[in-house]
Give the backbone structure.
Amino acid sequence: MPMIYTYMTWSALLVLLWGVVFVFARSKKKMFTMSLGTAPLGLTEPLFYPEYWSPPTLFGLGETYGFDVESILFSFSVGGLASSLYELGSPKKAKPMPGDHQLGSVHRFHVLALSSPVFVFVLLELTTSLNSIYTASLGLLVGAVSTVFCRVDLLGSAIKGAVIFSLFYFVFFSVMNWSHPNFVDLYWNNAAISGFRVFGVPIEELLFASTLGALWSNFYEHRYWQIRA
């Protein structure tokens, strides 16, 4: 398979895996909602291309405009997978939180906590020279910590979500590496990032996966005042 099609092929495979997980998802509404909410983040690709990486894209869209089809598919898929993978096989179901719990003193920060990933990301983008992969991961991390601050009951699922999605992402990326051994060397801007890799996977990719898993595993429950029981 020519490397020009690698990003498109593996983005399409992610969509296929998304479909498999969707069949068995505890809450199909949650998974689909989170995917729809995450897909537009693919439009932030100009912040990453080519400062973080520059893979060949379909019709050369990324190279010409910074936007590409693959990033939309990727964002759609990881959003749903990060929100739902960790709860496969879990006997617990989400249900509405009792109204009196929504009025607690900590919950007055509900909107701020939900918005914190965007605020932190934009602030860091405007005030630092950090690569966008770091500002995005820090924004996700702050969002995950803020969620647990408001909803301590979600700590366990945040940790579980971070671990399981990171493992999934690591295996997925490793198989891609195996199929195209030079892909990272050729298309990641290694001079602009740490250069550290875990069995060939850039540490930045795992940082993104773990923080996304930690936040997205709970974002839906936090947003819609749900608890698991």
Observations:
- The first strand starts at residue 94 and ends at 96.
- The two ends are 47 Å apart (CA to CA).
- The chain has one domain: 3-228.
